[in-house]
Description:
Layout: E1 3-8, H1 17-31, E2 37-42, E3 57-60, H2 68-85, E4 90-93, E5 106-109, H3 114-117, H4 128-141, E6 144-147, H5 150-160, E7 167-169, E8 191-195, H6 204-213, E9 221-227, H7 234-240, E10 246-250, H8 254-263, E11 266-269, H9 278-285, E12 290-293, H10 296-302, E13 307-309, H11 314-326, H12 328-342, H13 347-362
Parallel strand pairs: 1-2, 1-4, 2-3, 4-5, 5-6, 6-7, 8-9, 8-11, 9-10, 11-12, 12-13
Amino acid sequence: xxxxxxxxxxxxxxxxxxxxxxxxxxxxxxxxxxxxxxxxxxxxxxxxxxxxxxxxxxxxxxxxxxxxxxxxxxxxxxxxxxxxxxxxxxxxxxxxxxxxxxxxxxxxxxxxxxxxxxxxxxxxxxxxxxxxxxxxxxxxxxxxxxxxxxxxxxxxxxxxxxxxxxxxxxxxxxxxxxxxxxxxxxxxxxxxxxxxxxxxxxxxxxxxxxxxxxxxxxxxxxxxxxxxxxxxxxxxxxxxxxxxxxxxxxxxxxxxxxxxxxxxxxxxxxxxxxxxxxxxxxxxxxxxxxxxxxxxxxxxxxxxxxxxxxxxxxxxxxxxxxxxxxxxxxxxxxxxxxxxxxxxxxxxxxxxxxxxxxxxxxxxxx
Length: 366
């Protein structure tokens, strides 16, 4: 029975999409047939959370995943030691960074190369060089690398000098949030939902500028969740005088996510760059039309089911907001196409292909 140490040092409840990936993947891995043992090596913060999704035992590291320096030390040195202590056959680091040197075969999931491809859009420039160095170390140590789109595969090969044959492209999946009732769509008026952190590459300001371009009577309400503390978008909202139409929200719980998906006219993602786009799959799976910036990874995920716009063209986005909120036929067409597109991406598929990557790293075919 292969024993896998799962590196959960970055799992703290605050990391967004990478934590959604980890939870969903390991639920699905636990449901697969086969005799595998998973041991989670978890951060101090993660140990206090509900870990019932993890299909194995938990080892508490005592290492903070929120203190960047302590966490980096843990990733580089302590994950390998923990794997040796439990006599693991394989290490999986699912959140881009991993140990610097291991004798045990290691698989790292690298979600994107944004620190390399778009350093100017990173909100923590002081960390850019250290993160790039850690990514380089994790990649050079890994037996195999999993990534989530052809875009990221190409950039990992380019920036980290990894042979492309060593990189497995395994797309994510996105299940509609529980409790969504699309019979309520539009019940609180036209509303565009946007969900994510405030890192510069997310480009939320474009959505605010776009709605300001519309006549007051044409404007949908914009709800942007995911803020923490003083929202950096608030000054722009105030300067454009759109406080009545833009609702800046913090992190919301599952019940509120379900309510927002239920009433939304569409989801909008104006990002300049992404590694993947889980919210796109989640929204389409829930029957919510998706409006996406026209970047390669969004085309990879959304296919012909989404509508696209130039993330630098506020007028084009404004026109699309107006079209989708005013035309019921467009929304119905997008909803039908989105449900079909989302059904192509499943966590069972992601788990099966991930297990295959584990097998390759172990040098076995199971």
